Amino acid sequence: MAVAAQSQSTRIRSDIRVSLDCERPMQVRNYSARVNFDGVLNGDGSANADLTFSGFGLSAVVHFDARLGRGSQPAPGGSSQLRVLNPHALRGIWSLPNNDLMIDINTSGSSCSASIRVALKRGHREYTLWNGNKFYYCSAVRVLQTSCSAQ
């Protein structure tokens, strides 16, 4: 369903597989984890979404809520922000101490595309991930596969 009228909404679901190399608190190589992004982009320009990161003893759910003028909000291990880029695109940002995990979703009718990137912040050499109790410190995060659907 296209986002044409203000009353219409597009439901988005993206599944992303990543591979992690982490050194602390335990050392693992090529460990597979999943990132699920479920959201709704409304015709009025508002949006909300949940990002679930799971695997490798990690389990974090980040809730995003986008409204005009709303900045970041508290999230597990850091903060989150959902940006409505245009009537057909969202960017979710989970900001952790050493890095930002960014998911971009673009829709066109009933199809969509998703991309994810994990960007180190200035001065940091390892990625941080939060499992609800402690941080994991990782030297590499690789995107293996992405899929996306919209309705």
Summarize this structure briefly:
The chain has 151 residues and is an all-beta fold. Helices cover 0% and strands 72% of the residues.
Q: Alpha-carbon distance between the termini?
A: 5 Å
Q: Given the helix and strand composition, which structural class is it? A: mainly beta
Main sheet: strand order: 4-3-2-1-11-10
Q: Measured on Cα atoms, how large is the radius of gyration?
A: 16 Å
Query: How does the overall form come out from the CA principal axes?
Result: globular
Poorly predicted spans: 1-6
Helix proportion range = under 10%
Order of helices and strands: EEEEEEEEEEE
What is the overall number of helices? 0
Sheet of most strands: 6 strands, antiparallel
Number of strands: 11
Mean pLDDT across residues: 88
Number of domains: 1
Overview features:
globular; 11 strands; mainly beta; disordered N terminus; five-stranded antiparallel beta sheet
Give a topology summary:
Elements: E1 9-24, E2 28-42, E3 47-55, E4 58-66, E5 73-75, E6 78-86, E7 89-95, E8 99-108, E9 111-120, E10 127-130, E11 135-150
